[in-house]
């Protein structure tokens, strides 16, 4: 699965909305993914705050309630990974967030075990 939803704009002087990830396609025009760039960047460092801002902006969380709140509290990085995969598939942003999750969960316990 590459992407669940996308919009296609013809190659004209009108551009897609700012802060959305878009890339040119030689035949179709500009393909736009509905995942905001600010969400991808903020969720690398502050995933819980990124989801709250996304929700306040009118976005929907990837899981149904009450599972979404439990994931938001306990495993926010996994929730971000699922959301990135849901919209973009196994792209560069997925692997960047996977690396951040592995560093967070893998190296996080070594700080406290030395005390």
- The separation of the N and C termini measures 45 Å
Strand order of the largest sheet: 1-3-2
Poorly predicted runs: 1-6, 8-21, 28-32
Structural class: alpha+beta
What is the H/E string?
Answer: EEEHHHHH
Mean pLDDT, to the nearest integer, reads 74
SSE topology:
Layout: E1 7-9, E2 20-25, E3 29-36, H1 37-45, H2 47-56, H3 67-74, H4 76-88, H5 92-113
Helix pairs in contact: 1-2, 1-5, 4-5
Describe this structure in words.
The protein is α+β, with helices and mostly antiparallel strands and 115 residues long. The protein has helices spanning 37-45, 47-56, 67-74, 76-88, 92-113; strands at residues 7-9, 20-25, 29-36. Strands 1-3-2 form a 3-stranded antiparallel β-sheet. A hairpin with a 3-residue loop joins strand 2 (20-25) and strand 3 (29-36). The longest helix is centred in the C-terminal third of the chain and has 22 residues, at 92-113.
What is this structure, in a nutshell?
With 115 residues, this protein is α+β, with helices and mostly antiparallel strands. It is 54% helix and 15% strand.
